[in-house]
Design brief:
By secondary structure, the chain is an alpha/beta fold. It has helices spanning about 50-65, 100-105, 120-130, 145-150, 170, 180-190, 190-200, 205-210, 225-235, 240-275, 280-299, and strands spanning about 10-15, 20-25, 25-30, 35-40, 75-80, 80-85, 135, 140, 155-160, 165, 205, 215-220.
């Protein structure tokens, strides 16, 4: 999948009730006439990693799609050969979302928080998005991005046969985040979760499907057509029934989620302290460079 052109506009919402148009820079967005909104991580040069502007635009898109009555179902995917490479440890600090809009978003809990390695507001925002959400994993998904794809931030997950997953936490001094310390054992069992987290081995889309993390695996050229077909089926259902079903199915875990994320935050900070400090430290940068080389070798 080639990088898609930019020029995609959404609405930002401020505290005074005003709306303003915003051009996305890190994510391509297209709303189809059927009501299916496709959100594509679109910074393939850095393997679509979670740079700060991309994080802000994810919040902005969730806010926009929730409020837009024409959006019935959301699809999230990636451009190039990676879904998302996870944390941006190099720290590209460029932010295009206007400061006054960011202030309003933060007041609503819709923005990243400095020093929050578990991405608490992000995780809650995806869990609380009321409309059906489909993750279409087109390539590599690493660390936090693997959690974004596999730990119920979306309702359904479709993978290309090119999709690969890996949790590099021990290599970087991190511990499980985005609620994965609870969700992965809940979904695939404690023993397998420890193997996945401790050993940092790659696992395939077919393995993820076998473990119950993925609904369907298709050929690369069928990924978006399959996701679109599934999304369009959801669009034909009564939206209130689908949204209320999502609410009750998520509610039992959602009631525990904030405490889970707080516990993860305490542990990840203790781990970073014990291993030499936050990932801005030079040795973590070198480890990430090594990891990126491994990722590119997989492409």
């Amino acid at each position: 999948m080639a990088a898609q052109p930019q020029g995609c506009f959404i609405k930002l919402y401020c505290d005074d009730g005003k709306e303003e148009e915003y051009e996305l820079h890190s994510i391509h967005y297209k709303l189809h006439p059927t009501g299916v909104a496709v959100c594509t991580f679109n910074t393939p040069k850095n393997m679509n990693c979670l740079a700060i502007n991309q994080q802000w635009e994810m919040f902005a898109l969730l806010d926009h799609m929730r409020r837009d009555g024409d959006v019935k179902v959301a699809i999230w995917t990636g451009s190039g050969k990676a879904f998302n490479a996870g944390a941006d440890l190099r720290g590209d600090g460029t932010i295009y979302v206007p400061k006054h809009a960011r202030k309003s978003m933060l007041a609503r809990g819709m923005g990243p928080v400095q020093g929050d390695f578990v991405l608490k507001p992000h995780t809650i925002a995806f869990w609380d998005f009321p409309k059906p959400s489909i993750c279409a994993v087109n390539g590599l998904a690493v660390g936090g991005a693997a959690n974004m794809a596999l730990t119920n931030q979306h309702d359904l997950v479709i993978c290309s046969t090119d999709a690969r997953f890996m949790y590099p936490f021990p290599k970087l001094g991190f511990t499980p985040e985005l609620g994965s310390s609870y969700m992965l054992p809940y979904l695939i069992g404690l023993a397998r979760t420890k193997e996945v987290f401790y050993l940092s081995d790659w696992f395939s889309a077919e393995q993820a499907k076998e473990w119950g993390l993925v609904n369907k695996v298709v050929a690369p050229d069928q990924l978006l057509p399959e996701a679109m077909q599934l999304a369009e089926r959801l669009c034909l259902l009564h939206p209130a029934a689908v949204q209320q079903s999502k609410k009750i199915l998520n509610s039992h875990i959602r009631s525990k989620l904030e405490q889970i994320l707080d516990d993860e935050s305490a542990v990840i900070n203790a781990s970073l302290l014990a291993t030499g400090g936050p990932p801005q430290v030079g040795k973590y940068m070198k480890k990430q460079d090594e990891l990126i080389k491994q990722l590119k070798a997989k492409l």
